[in-house]
Design goal:
GO terms for molecular function: metal ion binding; prenyltransferase activity. The chain contains 17 helices and two strands. The protein is mainly alpha-helical. It has one domain: Farnesyl Diphosphate Synthase, CATH 1.10.600. A hairpin with a 2-residue loop joins strand 1 and strand 2.
Length: about 375
């Protein structure tokens, strides 16, 4: 199965997390309206962002909680679902900020928040720079989503066993630190010399993947669910052992979709990662393959065209096919397969119970095989 949608719906995970998010945003809207009459666009933008998304992080948290002994009819279910809602709010914050940093045009098939705010400024003929206004508003929106995530998380663990709450909080705090540092490492990777040392380029790209995406997409949600269920240190270590490689495979799939994905399903223009100049494992492998083949034309083309915002769709597709022809796509697929095998071997040794055990495996496969 390569579609996570029906999996996320099981045991009402999506519906319950969505209801929690709606309740949180409704309360936040009331709070903000009391602060100022002009705050409506912030809530509207947050609702748009949270109306999309696969809820995979929430699902990984919930099903890890079940796999480590959580009882769906017990009081701990609410805590697991609310931590899932906090993860969705945190992801929204990361996406608001990431889109500003990447200067992205779209998110989930709609204008990115900073573009939307800039458009409002421009059409209203307000004073000042519309672009700067849009970016500033989106940064503040991301900060607001971070605050919302913290509030939802704190409410989630308020009534549970203090030791479990402390262990879960430690993972949540580490996740926020690592994603922030991962964003910086990504920013740094975009400005460092590139293309002369493909092995070094790939090493940096994988460091970024692990810190910025792999851990908070899979490993940390799995760890939080385990901690909520009372998992001991050994069980948490085993959860990390399958969560991290699965998270890395998840991001490598995302990198492939960022170049070769169907815009109708990804919600972003074809080849957008090439225009944004993302220094991924994929392009590092393409550069390495060109070097081995002595293909100086491809090497120079990658250096010149990667990050060219003016590339039209035809040029972007042509560059993508050159990358595919280098063998880089096949190599990345092989890396994904190896990571999934590593994750499955660790998962097989973990002290898990059904139905959560089987659901984690199914979610993992769906996350890596997805088309969007």
């Amino acid at each position: 199965m390569n579609d996570a949608t029906p999996l996320v719906d099981l045991e009402g995970v999506r519906a319950q997390v969505d209801a929690l998010l709606t309740a949180h945003l409704d309360a936040l809207e009331t709070e903000l309206s009391g602060i100022g009459a002009g705050t409506g666009p912030l809530i509207e933008a947050m609702r748009r962002m949270l109306s999309g998304g696969k809820r995979l992080r929430a699902a990984f948290c919930y099903w890890s909680w079940r796999a480590h002994g959580g009882d769906r009819s017990g009081p701990g279910a609410t805590a697991a679902l609310r931590v899932g809602a906090a993860l969705e709010l945190f992801q929204a914050a990361a996406l608001f900020h990431d889109d500003v940093m990447d200067d992205s045009d779209t998110r989930r098939g709609l204008p990115a928040a900073h573009r939307s705010f800039a458009h409002t400024h421009r059409t209203a003929a307000w004073s000042g720079d519309d672009r700067r206004y849009g970016e500033s508003a989106a940064i503040l929106l991301g900060d607001l989503a971070l605050i919302a995530a913290e509030r939802e998380f704190s409410a989630a663990v308020a009534g549970i066993d203090p030791e479990r709450a402390t262990r879960t909080r430690a993972v949540f705090d580490r996740m926020r630190t690592e994603v922030t540092v991962g964003q910086y490492l990504d920013l740094q990777a975009q400005v460092l010399p590139w293309g002369t040392d493909p092995a070094g380029d790939e090493q940096r790209a994988r460091e970024v993947i692990r810190a910025k995406s792999a851990r908070y997409s899979v490993e940390h949600p799995v760890l939080m669910g385990a901690a909520l269920a009372g998992a001991d240190d050994d069980a948490l270590d085993r959860a990390s052992a399958f969560g991290l490689p699965l998270g890395e495979a998840f991001q490598l799939r995302d990198d492939l979709l960022g170049v070769f994905g169907d815009p109708a399903t990804t919600g972003k223009p074809a080849g957008d990662d090439l225009r944004e100049g993302k220094r991924t494992v994929l392009v590092a492998r393409a550069m390495a393959a060109a070097g081995r083949a002595g293909d100086l034309a491809l090497m120079e083309r990658l250096r010149a065209e990667l990050g060219d915002r003016g590339m039209d769709e035809a040029a972007c597709l042509d560059l993508a096919e050159a990358i595919r022809a280098s063998g880089a796509v096949d190599e990345v697929e092989q890396v994904i397969d190896l990571l999934v095998t590593e994750a499955e071997q660790a998962w097989a040794q973990a002290p898990l119970v059904d139905p959560g055990r089987e659901m984690l495996a199914r979610l993992g496969r769906a996350a890596v095989q997805r088309q969007a």
